[in-house]
Sequence to fold (56 residues):
Amino acid sequence: MGVLILGVLHISVVWIALLAAIAISQGLIIGYWHDAKYGSIPNAILLIIALLNLGS
Fold:
């Protein structure tokens, strides 16, 4: 939710917050791999988007 608010306000810190959220999410997915392994797909998509926007 916080990332969404930062994005709407066009604050450049949004990509740092998104990367932190992805890292936390992926850590939880690894901890519960058997049940949550497919959560890595949206994380990968969001990571690609974040990295592309960091360069711009």
The chain has four helices and no strands.
